[in-house]
Amino acid sequence: MNRLFTTSGKKRILFSPLDWGIGHASRSILLIRQLIEAGYEVIIAADGAAYALLRSVFPEIKIIRLSFCKIRYSRHIPAIWKIFFSLPCILKGIKKEHKKTTEIVKEHAIDLIVSDNRYGVYHSTVPTILVIHQLQPRLPHRLSFLSTFLFRWYNKYLFKFDRLWIPDYEEGPTLAGELSHPSVMPKALKEKIHYAGIISRFMIPEYSKEYPVKKVFQVVVVLSGPEPQRTLLERILIGKLRKKRWQVLIIRGIPREKQSGTLYGNIHLVSHLPPDMFYSYLKKAEYIISRAGYSTIMDLAAIGKTALLIPTPGQTEQEYLAGYLAAGNYFVTMLQNDIHLEEAFERLKKVREFPIRKGRNLAEEIKLRIKKINDSKAYLKTTLHRP
Length: 387
Hints:
The protein contains twelve helices and 14 strands. By secondary structure, it is an alpha/beta fold.
């Protein structure tokens, strides 16, 4: 694929994050801000919770609804099996979103596409960047015989993009481990990879200022992810935290709702929080409990915090991340059906802070890419016109 950026006028960029929870949308906030500040016009394509979150943060930006396959996890069936059985829906969703992307590109004269984990959001004649931290999906041991087939199928989609933008560090310690640094990868695919460092909304200066919160909570719970597992964990934690000595804030991860309340005198629930309040409550908390979603982990690492990570049952990516980071003594992990809070909090006192290093700016990388194209064109023009 050898596509070039256009080089005249204000560039119009289509930005589309996946709507499986709000993690992809929350980490998109920093990238969208960078693009706007660099002078690009951004149009967002999203749906569900991602649409609601980005609409609240960027009310002035045009947002187009772009839906995808809705997967509802089971109470009993492991997440990886639920995804496996949903493959027909996923493949149909990729095809459908690709068709819609083609229409958006034509209608809005899009110059560049940034897709966060949406494998159908690309175009054959428009340069496209895929933001992705998982270069090689992880399968449970019982399905390892499918690995070769899965990797070939997965790489087929990755090859459709011009650049793979990886929110992790190129050299260790890395936050995503083997997910972002697989041991085997086609050479042609490696050439597309750019490691950006971690991406977090809390890297935006106004979001990382201390908000004058009225109350400090010792324990902050950050919920996210698809139902019914989000609600199941919420109920489990309420049962374990009720009437304890800790004051607890549960951020439910439902931006479309505007509800709050108090349970058992010590547990305060909110559906969602604006970034500055979110940041302040996390920074002041003694202990944090969350899923092992990568965007949440990046947020915590960005502000120098650790947490008890509870991976979604059967979601192999989260199970790997939680185990990998606990092995490095950066986080603590426990299974959803085996949570012991006093033990976890004692272990959290002994972990170390993940070392944050300077990352790369997406907008600056795009500018550099355009400059290289211009320089190449100028060189060719000079060479061709030599006597």
